[in-house]
Amino acid sequence: MQPIIQLRNLSFQYKNAERVLNNLTTNLFEGQFITILGPNGSGKSTLAKCLNGILHPTDGVVIVDQIDTKNEDLIWHIRQHVGVVFQNPDNQIVASTVEEDVAFGLENQGIESSAMAKRVEDALQKVNLEEYKHTEPHHLSGGQKQKVAIAGIIAMKPKVIIFDEATSMLDPIGRAEVLKVAKQLNEEEGITILHITHFVQEALLADRILIMDRGYIIADGSPKEILSKKDLLEETGLDVPIAVDLAHRLKEKGYSFHTDLVREEEFI
Ligand code: ADP
Predict the structure, then answer these.
(1) pLDDT of residue 70 exceeding 80
(2) pLDDT score at 264
(3) Helix, coil or strand: residue 20
(4) Res 257: pLDDT
(5) H or E segment at 18?
(6) Contacts with 157 (C-beta within 8 Å, 6 or more apart), sequence order
(7) ∠ CA 225-34-109, rounded to 5°
């Protein structure tokens, strides 16, 4: 597997503040669905901003698709290939219809109008919003607005999509809609997904989980490995999902119940 994003001794410090990211080194591989879990303030959003060049490392390097994010001449390549869906659905809508909103990012790319219309149509189909193309975005639910934001990213043909707490302002239906699209884009289109969240149960969708705490990556493994570390989740201040907690309690009492039996469909 090729690393699509490489972190080499990445550290970051905001002006006149303490370090927020501490010497992070890891590879994120093409086609992975990675969840970054961590409590508020652990540095997740700062990391996301370093990954698409919004912020530059104070020390170390971030290499995306073979390009150093400090390379200003090629930053457009990184922005095009690493899309970010942010937390607040209302802050990401820029146009007065769904269709225009999805086309917005393409407009500066000099794409011919029939090719642009096709890309917008395909993107709306992938998030299951074709029938809303003429709708004014403010009539949509939070989950649907996030899907419009995702369609705008898909239209740019990205290699990576970062969901930066993109589910945290949504109701359970909206969360499930957005996660389902993320999973489909990963499985069907091969897009690398980086899902940043503090909801532990959402991490069951991932191939790989990283746990961040105070600017460090303190754990890195499969959902099975990470979710069996109930103490680690608790020490980090993350909520242990009820089903995981139950599995551990039953195991302590000698029942052969394992977190394997906790299926992702039960959480979304
Ligand atoms: P998370 O996404 O895990 O909640 P953040 O990356 O948003 O964490 O924040 C990590 C730390 O950096 C926090 O202590 C936060 O207060 C601080 N921080 C975030 N943004 C800024 C900023 N623009 N200026 C100064 N400090 C910041």
Answers:
(1) yes
(2) 47
(3) strand
(4) 53
(5) none
(6) 80, 81, 119
(7) 175
Contacts of 156 (CB under 8 A, 6+ apart): 80, 81, 83, 105, 106, 109
Q: Say yes or no: CB of residue 197 within 6 Å of ligand 1.
A: no
CA dihedral 196, 17, 10, 22 (to 10 degrees): -80
pLDDT of residue 29: 97
H or E element, residue 171: none
Residue 3 Cβ contacting ligand 1 at under 6 Å: no
| Ligand 1 neighbourhood includes 20 CB (under 6 angstroms) | yes
Q: Which tens digits make up the pLDDT trace of 189-200?
A: 999 999 999 989
CA distance 190 to 1: 12
Angstrom distance (rounded) from CA 114 to CA 116: 5
Q: Which residue puts its alpha carbon closest to atom 5 of ligand 1? A: 43
Q: Is the CB of residue 119 below 6 angstroms from any atom belonging to ligand 1? A: no
User: pLDDT, tens digit, for every residue of 103-152?
Assistant: 998 887 888 889 999 999 999 999 999 999 999 999 999 999 999 999 99
Average pLDDT, the chain: 91
Sign of CA dihedral 100, 90, 39, 204: negative
List the domain boundaries for the chain: 3-229
Tokens in use for 245?
């907690």
The correct CATH number of 3-229 out of 3.30.420.40, 2.30.30.760, 3.40.50.300, 3.40.50.2300 is: 3.40.50.300
Residue nearest to atom 22 of ligand 1 (CA): 14
